[in-house]
Amino acid sequence: MKSPPPALKQISGPLCEQGLLGNHLLLSLKKHGRAYRKKLKRCRDGFSKKSVHELRVETRRLLALLDLLNKMGSQISLPQRTRAPLKKRFDTLSSLRDAQVQSDYVGKMLVRRPELRAFHEFLQRRALRLARSAVSTLKKGKMSELENGIADLKQKLAKQFSDPDAEARCYTGVQQVLIQARDKVLELRRQSVGDASLIHRGRIALKKFRYLLEALQPVLSGIGPRELKAMREEQALVGNIQDAEVLTACINKWVSKKKLKKAPLLSLRKTLVRRRSTLLRAHLKKLAEPPDWNLPDGFEINLKSALPASSSAS
């Protein structure tokens, strides 16, 4: 039987009046907005595997924080014209990231399996083509629009958080968002044991949940570096399963087109099927156990940890 969610704790008094939670979220918004702009500039300078991955991560973090601010009761969000380029850039980089990972994976096998060289060259050409295509998408939209949008959002939130009652609603709203995100992850974990097709959905939900938890560090009790590390490891395992599935689908496509030698591709597909099966067994075994990272029902948002050292001592 599903246990009821923990009681939501209303707060009041000095900590609430100082608007500490709102201030923490505003600082997080500033931090992630700056990090996104930095990673976007680096990716525009060169589409390396690392720069593409880092920009995708920062995009997810920024979007997760924006969703939190919108869902927790503030009803304030970036204009669609400012938010849309974030999502479009992310979607564009997803295909490029897959191509880069596939090229890297097959490239490491060439010493033992030189017959895959033609397929590796195809993967390299595709990654280069996708990188060229991504140039125009990443350069569309002025950075000033995002900067102005975030600055306007911070002003509206700061004004809203200056009201002690709004700070209390903010606290309760954040708790509700976290509980809903946690319960979604746990439910998909339970369902995935009997339906492997849900594993990828569970990974995306876990990733969004982790970014929310990271945005609330260090004011969130019950989740720290150890738990966040366990979440990243679980995501990486499922990510490897997904990568094997995507590359297998790519091989099936090229086998049907008969443009490359069939035997090396079928051999590689057999290797990928075995790899996916091994990873899937490991993941399903992990799903049968309680997660190492679960947010406890008794979690709290410890506003005192958001205070400067001089303030917390008083």
- Which segments are poorly predicted (pLDDT under 50) over 5 or more consecutive residues? 1-18, 304-314
Shape descriptor: flat
Total beta strands: 0
Largest sheet: none
Termini separation (Å)? 45 Å
SSE order, as H and E?
A: HHHHHHHHHHH
Q: Helicity range of the residues?
A: over 70%
Cα Rg: 22 Å
Structural class: mainly alpha
Total number of helices = 11
Average pLDDT over all residues: 81
Beta-strand content:
under 5%
Protein architecture, described:
Helix 8 runs antiparallel to helix 9 (about 225-255). About 75% of the residues lie in helices and about 0% in strands. The protein is flat, with a radius of gyration of 22 Å. The chain has about 325 residues and is mostly helical. The relative contact order is 0.13.
Salient structural properties:
flat, disordered C terminus, 11 helices
Secondary structure layout:
Elements: H1 14-17, H2 20-45, H3 49-74, H4 80-107, H5 117-139, H6 143-161, H7 164-192, H8 199-215, H9 225-257, H10 262-287, H11 309-312
Helix pairs in contact: 2-3, 2-6, 3-4, 3-7, 3-8, 4-5, 7-8, 8-9, 9-10
Brief rundown of the structure:
The protein is an all-alpha fold and 314 residues long. It is built from eleven helices and no strands. It has helices spanning 14-17, 20-45, 49-74, 80-107, 117-139, 143-161, 164-192, 199-215, 225-257, 262-287, 309-312.
